[in-house]
Amino acid sequence: MADEVKFQERFATLKAELGKVLVGQDAMVHRLLLGFVAGGHILLEGVPGLAKTLVIRTLADCIDAAFSRIQFTPDMLPGDVTGTQIFNPKEGTYSVKKGPIFGNLILADEINRAPAKVQAALLEAMQERQVTLGEHTFPLSDPFLVLATQNPIEQEGTYPLPEAQLDRFMMKVRVRYPTKDEELKIVDRMAGASSEPRVQKVMTPAEILAAREAARQIFVDDKVKRYVVDVVTATRDPGSYKLSQIKSLIECGASVRASINLIKVGKANALLSGRNYISPHDVKSIAHDVLRHRLLLSYEAEAENKTADDIITTILDNVEVP
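-> structure tokens emitted (322 positions)
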């Protein structure tokens, strides 16, 4: 239990440091920290101006790690992300110039603006944690996290992320508007007379890796494992769980990777709560973020104006909790 409390305090310190710059958005910050502990990539979706880029840059400033920012555009090439081989005509040899993907924290800004070739170049890095340039394969540093942003409303000049890449993101987090009180604090802080606040480095990559190892040791009861599998299976076969009303709304359910990630993120949530075991509440609290981008909805769902979140809520309300 001592390790759980220690890491709970360390990440509370990190969250407090982020609070020097950020106002509100506690849910988004908490899920970013869960991604750090669980070791999974995160996709942030929200309209412009909700501090998506700011929170990732600030988080990178708080951690003594290599940070890269990639602004995705429609004219990008895969080499702009992974790097390339450069020919030396004098010696007749090639040398490798590594791209911005070689870092610990990668901010993939407006990732849905990149064409398919660039999206494909990210797949190997995100899943295999390596990059192949010519005949050479280079392992990426650890920890390695892709924190991506996308705008859900502007469609001109964007490319929908392929399902294979969406599945590589451990969580898809919806970023909400701040409350009126939070927005007043933001205006005072960012448009006031004093200079914008700065943060200090309060955590190292070694501490993040140690937290991941501690999270792996979190106990998961067999009943909780069955509950996770039931929730995910209900997205594929709703009829078996007396959920025939949503069967026609789902074209394709969540993959096995969803079950794995629910357990991983649940363990991270337990660790940051100072516990050495997962409860069903850990699973329910992060189920929307882990599942929403893994459900392929039918035309009927669109016609009825049903979202993935609506379907996940129905499943969580009806699948028996241990």
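The longest helix spans residues 2-18.
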